[in-house]
Design a protein that fits this description.
The N and C termini lie far apart (47 Å). This protein is globular. Helix content is 78%, strand content 0%. It is built from 21 helices and no strands.
Length: 462
């Protein structure tokens, strides 16, 4: 007699759900642990004889590649299967990590970092879709809470691992230690169901994808070069590429993302709020390390542990918030509360002095991290609900794209504001004022959400 698993191939998949979830998390960690590279910057600079300004391209090549590809690859995942794209990404990521660590020159390293960005985009574009497929629509919020926790956990552990590995085995170790993680996830992530057959017209729009990638690349370059005249040319090129993308997608049978949805003021506002919230939140990763370096008696390891508190707050809050969405509180109200908590934490940090007790510093970082975890979970749930079920890859990619736009903008704008303020003020005064401005951005995000019409704030179809 046939067993239940033989009669229903999906039953085995559901039975193995905790194991598959762990493997998706492990594969995602291989990309999120890239925060370990920041700790190795001084060692990379010495190894290749670089100036401090040159090291930024290690980040730019990686971020520009994966951010520009996310939406397009999310759409491909919706077409050919999220599991297939995810596993290809793991293989690509493992190869790229090996090549980056073996780079014979700085130029070769940058090329391999672009390849690593392709692998990261393949993995991240389909991770959220895979996780939500494990739990079904009725438990979607809980699944997204777990996924947000996994993303934050990688961000938290990266700096902690990076310092120790660089000290023992030099800078290649921050790349090589993730190879077995990616390979293990690739080999152990078995048994996932094949994608359902697609309609004949359900094809990836290649020309629309090219226009989208060009628009995102030039937009990110314009943000990165905001202090230079070249930013104007990048911005114009980005506008032209996005115009071509909108023109193409408005006529496509199966667009990468529905232009009509993007044109809804409420949905556009929601994504703008995500950029603002992440812009404000990322300021801690840019300036807090410099503040802690000035405090007597705090070692580098202790600074890393204190800074990790922010990510730890998100790790703890995201899965808890996922259990409350829809049952006890709406995703919209939870997003407002998260943005307000980000602002409260940043305002707390903006009151630091060199005499502030360590426990108080940790508390401020934790509040900000908790707010970020709650906001990202709620925003993910709203966007995922707004898009059709068949577009889960695009939904997860859009969430990560707005987060990346926020962090890239922060790297340019926050540092520019701090430099301007520090030109005629002390470090502490400039630090405090910068974080007070960041807090205002987060509070503004909460106010924008509150002011948006309730029935359209999330772009859901009535």
């Amino acid at each position: 007699m046939s067993s239940e698993n033989e009669r229903d191939p999906g039953a085995r998949w559901l039975h193995a759900r905790p194991w598959q979830l762990a493997m998706i998390g492990l594969g995602t960690a291989a990309t999120q642990l890239d925060t370990s590279v920041n700790i190795a910057f001084p060692a990379i600079t010495r190894a290749f004889g670089l100036s401090v300004a040159d090291i930024q391209w290690v980040v730019i090549c990686y971020v520009l590649t994966y951010a520009s590809l996310l939406l397009a690859l999310g759409r491909i995942g919706d077409t050919v299967g999220h599991a297939r794209v995810f596993r290809i990404g793991l293989a690509c990521n493992a190869l790229a990590l090996l090549l980056v660590g073996c780079s014979p020159s700085y130029g070769a390293m940058l090329v391999f970092r672009c390849l690593q960005g392709v692998g990261a985009a393949l993995v991240l574009s389909c991770g959220a879709a895979l996780v939500t497929s494990l739990y079904g629509e009725e438990r979607r919020s809980r699944a997204l809470g777990i996924y947000t926790m996994m993303l934050s956990l990688g961000l938290m552990l990266g700096p902690l691992f990076g310092g120790a590995l660089t000290a023992i085995w030099d800078w290649p170790a921050v790349f090589w230690f993730r190879i077995p993680i990616a390979i293990a996830a690739l080999l152990l992530l078995q048994g996932m169901p094949a994608p359902a057959p697609h309609e004949a017209n359900d094809r990836f729009d290649l020309w629309g994808g090219i226009a989208l990638v060009l628009g995102l690349v030039t937009l990110l370059m314009a943000i990165n070069r905001i202090r230079e005249f070249s930013a104007i040319w990048f911005a114009l090129a980005s506008g032209a590429a996005f115009a071509a993308f909108i023109f193409r997608e408005s006529r496509a049978t199966r667009p990468i993302i529905a232009v009509g949805l993007l044109g809804k003021p409420s949905f556009a506002l929601l994504n703008l709020v995500s950029v603002l919230a992440n812009l404000a939140a990322f300021s801690i990763w840019l300036l807090v390390p410099y503040f802690l370096a000035r405090v007597p008696g705090i070692t580098l390891a202790e600074s890393g542990a204190i800074l990790a508190t922010a990510a730890a707050g998100a790790v703890l809050s995201a899965p808890i918030a996922g259990r409350f969405v829809g049952r006890h509180i709406s995703a919209e109200r939870l997003a407002m509360a998260g943005a307000a908590a980000i602002g409260a934490g940043l305002l707390w940090i903006g009151g630091w002095t060199e005499q502030t007790p360590t426990a108080v510093r940790i508390a401020g970082l934790a509040v900000q991290g908790i707010g970020l975890g709650v906001f990202q979970l709620a925003y993910s749930d709203i966007v995922t609900a707004a898009l059709p079920l068949r577009d889960r890859g695009v939904a997860g990619s859009l969430v990560l794209l707005t987060r990346t736009l926020g962090t890239v903008t922060a790297a340019s704008v926050v540092l520019m504001v701090f430099d301007i303020l520090s030109s005629d003020r002390s470090f502490i005064d400039a630090f405090q004022r910068t974080f007070q401005m960041a807090a205002i951005l987060a509070f503004a995000a909460a106010v924008l959400l509150a002011a948006s019409p309730r029935d359209a704030a999330n772009g859901r179809r009535r």
